[in-house]
Amino acid sequence: MKNLPIGKSDFRQIRQAGDYYIDKSLLIEDIMKNSAQTYLFPRPRRFGKTLNMSMLKYFYDVQGAEENAKLFDGLAIQKSDAWQHQGKYPVIFLSFKELKCASMDIFIEKSLFYFSSYIERNFPYLEHMEGLVRSEKRLLLRLLDMEVNQTELEATLRLLCDLLKRYHGTAPVLLIDEYDAPIHASYSYGYFDEMIAFMRNFLSAGFKDNENLTKGAITGILRVAKENIFSGLNNIITYSILNANFSERFGLTQAEVDQLLDDADSAENRDAVAEWYNGYSFGGTTQIYNPWSILNYVAHPKDGLKPHWVNTSSNDLIKEILPKADKETQDVLFDLLKGKKVTTSIEEFTVFKDLYAGKNATVLGLLLFSGYLTAEVFDHFQSYKLRIPNKEIELMFRRMLEGYLGNGVTQAGDTDLMKALLEQRANTFADALAQYVKTSFSYFDIGKEGNSEKIYHAFMLGLLAHLDKDYHIRSNREVGYGRADIYFYPKDASNPKAWILEFKKKDKDDKGDLQSLAEDALKQIHERDYLDEIKAHGHTDFLCMGVAFEGKEVVCAF
């Protein structure tokens, strides 16, 4: 079998090396048949975005057209009417992947170097072309010398498109990969508004009412809110994982995986491979495999089926957002952990202030478009049926709390900790919980100033998730005169036991010690009549517990 191009994203490098290549060239036909001028393709990380953009570059590029044509030998696009466009256009291909910076000043500095180097390397002939007026040549030279100001830098795409059209007599193709990478960084480092203003002007210069443009394509993970960045760019049409069009062009289809497994003599594991790496539903119907995971499995079959994508994909944003999730989001995530399909609304546009506020629809949208959930079916009212796509992601969800709590949530049902809780041995449980938190939590994560009690709440939900088969587990439900943090009771109506837990996190402004804070939590259970609903189900033997946390310390009152 040919070598698998794991980690390679340059189309020419893969084809010239004779590596195994799964033909996605009909993406070109789809683009040429579609009436849109510019496309935005949001897809999860490592689903083939950069490789496809590289393929588009080598297909369209007028420079090296004859040599580039050989790269497509044997591919489906050669038999398409779209082949007539091969090697006919100048191409601008930019990647923002490495432009993630800690400040706006550093971003501008790196961008100046990047664009200057890119122009000098790819279009050295422009500064010598005939017909340049003095202002154009001066601006081009200042750009090459990295002396332009921010306003002039924002006009780079418009200038390049204009000059390339005049030089070649044909309007260029404009490709921008990972446009949202610097936007993520800007929000984390506190210069989001400045970045959005730059990106809005930069992209508008290249795509808005640009008569010197043949086709354009933009890729990223998220669809940043239109009012923030794509305002007025009516010629940009978005085809996300929720759209049927282009659904087979990113990721691997069942037929493609079947062929890959046959070629690798691994067909006997077909069903198990599907359980681990299949399950993404693009466009509501097309079943897609995670390409990074399946390629890594085929490359090392003796290592067995195990997580690949979740161990390499950048999930810093996920880990930062989940502790901020609101009550509604917590309930949905808990149901997903139990293997349920959840019908809910999502935001197709990512509004970062809503994301960091833990807004339900925005957080779920992030998880969906980042590849941690999939929309199995959906309607036209932004109501989607979400589920965990496969075993790889299910395992990640089981360890999700580990991502921001430390060493992880285990199969807790058989531990002394859970046994003590279920047997209502309160003192033993309190001691076991204190020891577990001390040895298992990462202080780096839970010791951060400003963390709320949600992070401990989520930890306890993770422990209880494995009881779902035999117990009704409720989180943040409205009962009595408030919302009880967690209560649960047996599905067996003959079992009189029930449990209710209320959490408090000690803040700087809280007076008293952890013990008094835990007693306050316990008092809240009774004062707000949280036991009413449990009593209504016929349960009479309660363990009521107030749990107070501070960093890696925990105290219980019961």
Automatic annotation (TrEMBL):
Residue span, AAA-ATPase-like domain:
5-230
InterPro entries cross-referenced by the UniProt entry: AAA-ATPase-like_dom (IPR018631), PDDEXK_9 (IPR012547)
* Residues of the signal peptide: none
Q: Name one Pfam family in it.
A: PDDEXK_9
Keyword Transport listed? The answer is no
Does Cytoplasm count among this protein's keywords? no
- Superkingdom of this entry's organism? Bacteria
Record key words, sorted: Plasmid
Question: By its UniProt entry, which PANTHER family does this protein fall under?
Answer: AAA-ATPASE-LIKE DOMAIN-CONTAINING PROTEIN (PTHR34825:SF1), CONSERVED PROTEIN, WITH A WEAK D-GALACTARATE DEHYDRATASE/ALTRONATE HYDROLASE DOMAIN (PTHR34825)
Q: What name does the UniProt record give this protein?
A: AAA-ATPase-like domain-containing protein
Q: Whose protein is this, by species?
A: Persicobacter psychrovividus
